[in-house]
Amino acid sequence: MKSSQHEQDRPDIMGIKGKVLLDTAFGMRDSPEEKSGQAMWPIKINRNHMKKTLTILGVTAGIFLGSLGEVAAQKTKVRYADQQMELMNYQHALDMYKEAYAKKPNIETARKTALAQDKIRDYNQAYTWWKTVVGYEEATGEDYVRLLQTGILTGNFEEAQSLAQAKGLTADSLGVSPGSIPRAHVS
Question: pTM surpassing 0.90?
Answer without folding.
Answer: no
